[in-house]
Amino acid sequence: MFQSRNRHWGVALTVVSTLSAMLLVSACTPPMPPDVLAAQLENQINCQNGSQEVAVPEEFMGSFDIVNVTLSGVCPEQSVTETTTDMPTGVRVTSAAPTTIEIVDFTEQCTGEVITVPVFNYGVTLSYNIIGLDGLVLSPTVIAGILSGSITMWDDPAIAADNSGYDLSGLPEIVVMSVETPTGSVDAMTSYLTAEVPELWPSGVSGVLELGEKFATEADLIGEMIAVEGAVAVLPIVQAINNVIPMAATEVNGVVINPDDTQLQKVGSGALEVAVAPGSLTATPATGGVPIEGNFDLAASKVVIAEGADLIGWPILGTAHAMVCNTPEDPLPLSTVQFLIRLSGQGSFETYGLTPIPEPIRLQTFVPLQVSLSETVAPEESATE
Question: What are the backbone angles phi and psi of residue 78, rounded to the nearest 5°?
């Protein structure tokens, strides 16, 4: 019934042409185009009274503070607060498509239907603590070598070959650091390495690194990384930026790109695969960052019709998901996540430094989240459609 964190490589960004048929206004009304339907649905807000706690991964704590400000402007009696992922709550965010264990754990504390949808994307980078060496270019080959332990010094010939403008001699030894528990960032990085350099990364996709020093929390990891010169860690780009930690650039199709370019993250987020199951929709980033089946409208983060576009985007991406406990007795969790996938909710995440869900995938979330005109438009309004 539920999707585990499996990876399928390639790009599948097909707009579901039957979306409007699944969201009919009524049996007598012809289906509207998905973009027209989405525009009408955007104006229908299912406001509730009360405050919803959302369990948020540590690396994205703070993002829902912005969501709360936006939400309160639309629904004055409704709010959202953050809590840790070990607390029982009606909405839990995972930093990747939830694993079977995560789904079972959430289901055990939910008395109703569990719905799973993607809520935002985020770029992932290899961050490092080397004073004065901003913008090092690290290829997939080099990253695999660092994280597997075959590259241990910054003046290794493989690193020097792509960074001729830097003096790498005399630098401290490379120290790999990570948290003990699985993270979506490590999952995204190992997915990238598995696809790009499988011969150098035989261990495959995992949310946990085998090598290096381990820490109980992200805060402990960041604190130690900042204190140890030569340290490296796989982090969400937004977390590295917030903590002023240098990030490695990389090369895609012969072009060096930097991880702090949010537009390139939007392009990369177009390379997503979608899996649909009863009550759930999960999305996993494909590697390469180049949408094959569409061209990106960067300003709106939407895919528009333009086949074969030669676009280059940030290639290492994670997709956060929300699990919702939906019960007739408590409509607040569902209402909260319905808001998250609306344009105003997506804009809140973007303000924080995350990346909105591409529009074709956002439209698909309307179905499991039960967003429809027939449920939200007043009878006198629907009669005039």
Answer: -120, 140
Structure confidence at residue 307 (pLDDT): 39
Residue 87 lies in a domain: yes
Residue 25: its pLDDT value, please? 38
Give dist(CA 173, CA 144) in Å, integer. Answer: 16
Does residue 248 lie within any of the structural domains?
Answer: no
Report pLDDT for 285: 58
Of residues 179, 121, 123, 168, the one with CA closest to residue 142: 168
The per-residue pLDDT for 86 is: 83
Residues forming beta bridges with residue 257, ordered by sequence position: 250
CA distance 368 to 276: 9
Does 329 map to a domain? yes
Per-residue confidence (pLDDT) for residue 220, from 0 to 100? 97
As a whole number of angstroms, the distance between CA 379 and CA 283 comes to: 35
Low-confidence ranges of the chain (pLDDT < 50): 1-27, 286-310, 374-385
Question: What's the one-letter identity of residue 15?
Answer: V
What CA–CA distance (Å, rounded) separates 10 from 286? 6
Span between the terminal Cα atoms of the chain, in Å: 36
Q: In sequence order, what are the beta bridge partners of 175?
A: 231
Tokens of 232: 């490296």
pLDDT at 273: 62
CATH code of the domain containing 93: 3.40.190.10
Assigned domain for 50 exists: yes
**Cα 336 → chain centroid:** 18
Domains identified in the chain, total number: 1
Which residue from 61, 63, 65 is spatially nearest to 87, judged by alpha carbons? 61
Report d(CA 191, CA 289) in Å as an integer: 13
Residues 164-191 pLDDT 10s: 989 999 999 999 999 999 999 999 999 9
Spatial separation of the C-alpha atoms in residues 153 and 124, rounded to whole Å? 22
Q: Give alpha helix (H) positions in 197-316.
A: 218-227, 237-242, 262-268
Domain that holds residue 99: 19-120+273-284+317-382
Give residues with Cβ within 8 angstroms of 291, minimum separation 6: 11, 13, 267, 270, 271, 303, 309, 311, 313
